[in-house]
Amino acid sequence: MPRSSKRAAKLxxxxxxxxxxxxxxxxxxxxxxxxxxxxxxxYCASGGRSALAGKVLKDMGYSQVFNMGAFKxxxxxxxxxxxxxxxxxx
Length: 90
Prior knowledge:
3 helices; 26% helix
């Protein structure tokens, strides 16, 4: 996956709807990492799911949502990617 800042949160797509609970100060699950003013970059393998996730997040009140699109295009164009460590177990 792309390298991320220390403040980044990584969520699988099914968790996006939970962000509504995490972003509300009235919720017992509030986490300021998910405030609606945070910049969010979404991506997936081909770009389709990230487009849908971006729309859902904007509909939920997030204003700084950017779709990076297809991860494979990012990687193939030379974008920085964290690679798993080879533990010699394969």
